[in-house]
Design brief:
Layout lengths: L95 H107 L11 H60 L23 H52 L3 H37 L1 H14 L11 H51 L1 H12 L5 H5 L2
Helix pairs in contact: 1-2, 1-3, 1-7, 2-3, 4-6, 5-6
């Protein structure tokens, strides 16, 4: 027999009687089982406190004789187990002590589990708080780091902006010097042509006038000076163009670096301002394993240092070349001006009186041209004044016409009617006076044109009287722009 309180085994060593088909009488049941139900009659969702389901499975099997095991080979057929009577009986599987011990065991296990659960719950709360604080601290440190990084980028962005502004100013200044050099080079071309033309024209002198005088000597010197100045200006212009290319390369690098830093500053500032409640935050699985960086802090710092240093070097070279170019312009302008003055003095000694008369005629011609311009502007002003009288004149006449439609006694010659009539007459008189003044002005303008033609004719006469020195030589020299333009452009 199995010990009391343990489940029965599935193999029996003695024959078992079949389960009765009917339940025993109610009076035969023990008082402790009156309120109990068999396991197979319990609802499916009921759970027994501590017995496993395997205990009840053998009861559902038809009880038959079990096969003999190997341990009972010596038993003879005459030694048969006594048969269990067919009368239904209740086999007690557990004792009350077992029941109490089972309950106590369950209580202790439940208390143990409750204590463990409470400890685990407290640990979980502490762990959650610690992890939250750690996460918050880490996020704050990263936010601070992003802020520092954004400030660093902002600082170097401002430095790049300052350097870029300085480079732009230097490039613009060097561009102005380049234009001055080109203008000076262009201004020297007519001067060289004039000097050569003077030499060619003086070859047309006849007789005793074909002498190697001071004018001819100074003209030869002037040609050599202009050619030397042009060569030096051209060489300096080539250097300026090459320096401008270098400046633009450095400027391009600065602009590119500045654009990158502006984009990076915008991104880092956006990341710095992101919070847990911000819009646009999302999960990006595996992004922490992506390393898209192409530089480290040292290479990043060296890159910006190199850009700024390269720009500063190019800017210093540009400033040095700019000063050199300005000095060259001043020197060449002074040389050409001095030689130009010497040639002019030599010519002036021969044609002083004729040149003075021509100068006076030119002065009067300039004044006449200015007066013609002023009179033409005055004519346009008078015509505009006449046109301006048109709208008031039409308004007054329209008012008079509208007032003729007044009914019956309302056609009154009131003060308004009289003032409108006077207004029409005044405007008409004003237009007539303006027309008369326009005719007078146009007549005066014609007289000025006549004076202009007379002065131009007299100037041509005086120019023709100067012959070769004044007409052929000094005449073309006076059409040359003043050397002060070379000095003024610096």
């Amino acid at each position: 027999m199995e010990p009391v309180g343990s489940p029965l085994t599935a193999i029996y060593t003695y024959p078992r009687s079949t389960a009765p088909k009917l339940l025993p009488a109610i009076s035969a049941m023990a008082s402790s089982c009156k309120d109990r139900f068999p396991y197979y009659l319990l609802p499916q969702n009921s759970n027994l406190p501590w017995m496993s389901n395997t205990y009840y499975k053998p009861t559902a099997i038809n009880q038959t004789l079990a096969p003999l095991s190997k341990s009972f080979k010596g038993m003879t057929a005459s030694k048969k187990l006594p048969l269990i009577p067919n009368k239904p009986t209740f086999i007690t599987r557990y004792t009350p002590d077992d029941w109490c011990r089972s309950n106590l065991t369950n209580y202790k296990e439940a208390e143990t589990y409750q204590h463990d659960a409470e400890c685990l719950r407290v640990d979980n709360v502490h762990m959650i708080e610690d992890k939250y604080q750690q996460t918050e601290k880490t996020q704050g440190e990263n936010t601070k780091s992003l802020g520092i990084r954004a400030n660093d980028i902002g600082f170097w962005k401002s430095e790049l902006c300052l350097e870029l502004d300085e480079m732009l100013k230097e490039t613009n200044a060097l561009t102005d010097v380049k234009k001055q050099l080109e203008r000076a080079l262009a201004e020297t071309e007519p001067l060289l042509q004039i000097a050569q033309e003077c030499l060619l024209q003086r070859e047309k002198r006849m007789g005793i006038d074909r002498v190697h005088d001071d004018v001819e000597k100074e003209l030869f010197i002037e040609v050599d000076v202009i050619r030397s100045c042009r060569e030096r200006i051209q060489q300096c212009l080539d250097l300026v163009k090459a320096q401008l290319v270098s400046n633009r390369v450095a400027q391009h690098e600065l602009e590119k670096d500045l654009a990158n830093k502006q984009a990076a500053h915008h991104i880092d500032d956006k990341c710095y301002n992101l919070k847990n409640t911000s819009d646009g935050i999302s999960y990006y699985q595996g992004v922490e394993r992506v390393d898209a960086t192409i530089s480290v802090l040292e290479s990043w710092s060296k890159f910006k240092y190199d850009n700024i240093l390269h720009s500063q070097c190019e800017r210093a070279a540009s400033a040095k070349l700019r000063d050199r170019s300005k000095d060259l312009l001043v020197v060449t302008a002074n040389e050409m001006r001095c030689q130009f003055n010497k040639v002019n003095v030599a010519f002036a000694n021969r044609v002083a009186e004729t040149a003075d008369a021509k100068s006076k005629i030119q002065s009067h011609l300039v004044k006449t041209l200015q007066e013609i311009y002023q009179m033409e502007m005055n004519v346009e002003a008078i015509k505009k004044a006449m046109r301006d009288q048109g709208p008031p004149f039409r308004v007054a006449q329209t008012r008079l016409d509208e007032r003729t439609w007044r009914p019956n006694m309302e056609l009154c010659r009131d003060p308004a009617q009289l003032r409108l009539v006077n207004e029409v007459h005044e405007i008409d008189e004003t237009v007539q006076s303006l027309e008369q003044r326009l005719r007078d002005t146009e007549d005066n303008l014609q007289m000025l044109f006549h004076a202009k033609s007379v002065l131009q004719y007299e100037l041509a006469v005086k120019a023709n009287s100067l012959l070769i020195d004044q007409e052929k030589c000094m005449g073309i020299r006076k059409t040359f722009p003043s050397i002060a333009r070379l000095m003024g452009s610096v």
